Amino acid sequence: MVELKEVTKIFHKDTPDEIIALKNINLTIKEGEFVTIIGANGAGKTTLLNIISGSLFADRGKIFINGVDVTNFAEYKRASYIGRIFQNPTVGTASNMTIEENLILAYKKGFRGIRISLNNKTREFFKEKLALLELGLENRLKDPVILLSGGQRQALTLLMAILSGPTLLLLDEHTAALDPKNAFHILYLTDRFVKEYRITTLMITHNMSNAINYGTRLIMMDKGEIIFDVAGKQKENLTVEKLVEEFYKLRHRELDSDSVMLVD
Fold first, then answer.
1. How far apart are CA 35 and CA 203, in angstroms?
2. Is 64 in a helix, a strand, or coil?
């Protein structure tokens, strides 16, 4: 589904501020895998997603999606099969458009035919899907999105991503800006939708418990490298303590607890 071969990304190359954000990354993600990505600030997590989505280009290496070499594809060329949700709940929606207008924009993948497509049949379909969010938004189709709370907007963004029909979903700490109650609900919806629609998913999280409890595979990054990759029974048997111990064993230093949440 996704394959990275010897991917390297360097910022401020050949200057005193040079940062190796990704270092010779080799990674294969199988179709249907739900991969959680954990690591301290500066580990390379977001850069990895940026390279896959096309918002950044690799300095070296190759990126394949569905067997196609997309290394030099612009971001818009990959957007037809990639859905992405960011930390900020306001990024994924158009504030001054209504809920139904945002939904049809995602569903139709663009502005063409929006007004024609917004008919009673489409509205009933949207109400049915919005009801899955369990937030009462199915009764607020004509409300401007700006009136929604952060948790409601992130839930709507998640639904929009699903309705756009991606084969790959990239989640960049999409619950980090939410309070614990809303964060838990968004994770519940994420897990539900990913399983139901069988979407290949990469989810960055700063919460080690969430990295362990969600998904089918866990990747830990540090200083631009993938240092730990675990799935199946091994992942199921992980605990936060074991993960911290593994980091110390591999890197011979303590994990930065200021940028990684060790407990809920």
1. 6
2. strand
Specify the pTM. Answer: 0.92
Cα 145 to the center of its chain, rounded Å:
21
Among 207, 246, 248, residue whose Cα is nearest residue 230: 246
Query: Half-sphere exposure of 110 toward its Cβ, with a 13 Å CA cutoff?
Result: 5
Among residues 112, 106, 81, the alpha carbon closest in space to that of 94 is found at 106
| Interatomic CA distance for residues 74 and 70, integer angstroms | 8
What domains lie within the chain, and their CATH numbers?
32-58+67-251 (3.40.50.300)
Question: Dmax over Cα atoms in the chain, in whole Å?
Answer: 61
For residue 230, the cross-strand partners are 218
26 dihedral zone (left: phi>0; alpha: psi -120 to 50; beta):
beta
- In the chain, the N- to C-terminal Cα span, in Å, equals 32
Average pLDDT per 10 consecutive residues for the chain, totaling 264 residues: 96 94 97 96 95 97 95 92 93 94 86 67 96 97 97 97 94 95 97 96 95 97 96 94 90 72 52
Q: Could you tell me whether strands 68-69 and 60-65 are parallel, antiparallel, or unpaired per DSSP bridges?
A: antiparallel
Q: Of 196, 194, 234, 241, give the one whose Cα is nearest residue 218.
A: 234
Determine contact, residues 151/175, Cβ cutoff 8 Å.
Answer: no
Beta bridge partners of 27: 4
What's the rounded Cα separation, in Å, for the pair 256 and 8?
24
Provide the pLDDT for residue 54. 96
Residue carrying structure tokens 């569903």: 107
